Amino acid sequence: MKLLKPAMLAAVLALPLAAPAAYAETPPDLLVVAQNIDDIVAIDPAQAYEFTSGELVTNTYDRLVQYGAEDTTLLAPGLATSWEIDAEAKTIVFTLREGVTFHSGNPLRVEDVVFSFSRVVQLDLTPAFILTQLGWTPENVGEMVTADGNTVTVRYAGDYSPAFVMNILASRPASIVDELTVMANEVDGDMGNTWLNANTAGTGPFALTAFRPAELIRMEANPDYFNGGPAIEGIIIRHVAESATQQLLLESGDVDIARNLTPDQIASLDGDNLTVETFPQEAVHFLSFNQAVESLTPPAVWEAARYLVDYEGMTNSIIAGQMETHQAFWPEGFPGALTDTPFSYDPERAAQILADAGIDLPITVTLDVINAAPFTDMAQSLQASFAEAGIMFEILPGTGSQVITRYRERSHEAMLLYWGPDFMDPHSNAKAFAYNSDNSQEAYAATTTWRNSWAVPEDMNAMTTAALTEADPGVREEMYLELQRRVQASSPIVIMFQASYQVAMAGNVTGYVNGATSDFVFYRLVDKS
User: Fold this and answer.
1) What is the C-alpha to C-alpha distance for residues 266 and 276, in angstroms, rounded to an integer?
2) CATH for the 280-501 domain, from 3.10.105.10, 3.40.50.150, 3.30.420.10, 3.30.1490.10
3) Residue 236: partners with Cβ closer than 8 Å, 6 or more residues away
4) N or C: which end of the chain has fewer CB within 10 A?
5) Which residues, including other chains, have CB under 8 Å from residue 124's CB and lie 6 or more apart?
6) 257-258 and 30-35 beta bridge pairing
């Protein structure tokens, strides 16, 4: 493996945390990133569940199938070159790629795949639920995932579309680890968990060479990466919590990328050789009405609400650079997303809809909102625009935990919140926005439908279930598009925006990829020519 030159590494680590008077310059073959990385709790793929840890896992590990830097919407071969699907038998047989080695130098084996999946299930840490959806348990995983020659057979239980299973196998906990290295570092039966929270044991385009929590991540390029070695020799990610300091470091040339600048700072960047790129993110932001509140149950209220959101006004001011108009439950940038935006701010039309339905006005309703920017600003915008049609919001700000607790209890009236998928399959959000088969108080479900007491129409429930099992990818995608259209047109959940993310970087940096989730942040194609 190619190693960073000692002089280069020393120069980077010596870079100041505040901007000097003279313009600095980062080493030509090393990418230096300023980022707040104090969210990391774990970096073991069997445990990692934070945003930044997801980025680290993606750049140091591979999966059998995966979404890559070249096209983050395309599920492509990873450590498997091909696969055969038997939907009736609920099996997928993967043929392993030959000639791949782990960063340790150990060759990739089918045993590593079996071990990696079993390890996640056996450890049963936070992200294990993603894999155990397939019916895997500590008792049966040895039968559900088996190896023969150069193939791995994956079996699953439940009526699932193979596309759903493939997306599960492309998720973070499905990353393949080096069994020999991991088990050589096992302590007290932890299956190498302690060691893997300070090291990596993958096949990815980069290898972790240093990790100091809330201080530093250092990765070196893997020139033998099967999909092509990175264009740069390594990456230094420096923990810089203050966005103002990140801006100073970028403007002075001490870092190549600043990951956490505010929209105001983006607008105020001072430097001719700086660029800004905007990337759609996974979270969709919505306004919802609790159907346990009688005045909020008429569909005319839901319809009118869609014309009382000042989409353009907010995206051009208070949420500029942070959100874009998006009116469907599956985020743009993911396969199968509906990108139509049929609703715009039209208070006269909304008032007519309410009048035609004979709605008794005014309606006074409390609106729960997280007490932080930009959410309170958004709530005030909604308060002003909805008042135009006689719907009067009383804003109830609270901490994130307070707001979410009220939502889970179904004790709110209206709610301003956001939602993101757990994995790259539209069922992750369809279940949340288009399914609720039991609306009783005792049948708690972690969905927006149940939390808003919305008894979803039975035909929509049936379509959501059918889409999960549909084997034909084209038919399945159209079913999810139709579900998005139905929720978009008539539901007590008004989807308004999708989060966006702005990244500022030096003008000579190209190839940085920031997909819709933290699992889709790729550095392999970055060049500093």
Assistant:
1) 8
2) 3.10.105.10
3) 12, 13, 30, 31, 32, 33, 216, 217, 218
4) C
5) 138
6) parallel
Fold observed for domain 6-262+507-522 = D-Maltodextrin-Binding Protein; domain 2 (3.40.190)
Q: Are 170 and 72 in contact (CB under 8 A)?
A: no
DSSP 254-304: S-SEE----HHHHHT---TTEEEEEEEEEEEEEEEE-TTSGGG-SHHHHHH
The SS3 assignment for 409 reads: helix
Each residue of 338-364: pLDDT tens digit? Answer: 999 999 999 999 999 999 999 999 999
Q: Which whole number is the average pLDDT over 296-311?
A: 98
Each residue's pLDDT tens digit, 246-259: 999 999 999 999 99
CB 46 within 8 A of CB 158: no
Q: In which residue are the tokens 């007290």 written?
A: 188
Q: How many CB atoms lie within 10 A of CB 401?
A: 9
pTM recorded for the entire structure: 0.84
Q: CA 416, CA 374: separation in Å to the nearest integer?
A: 11
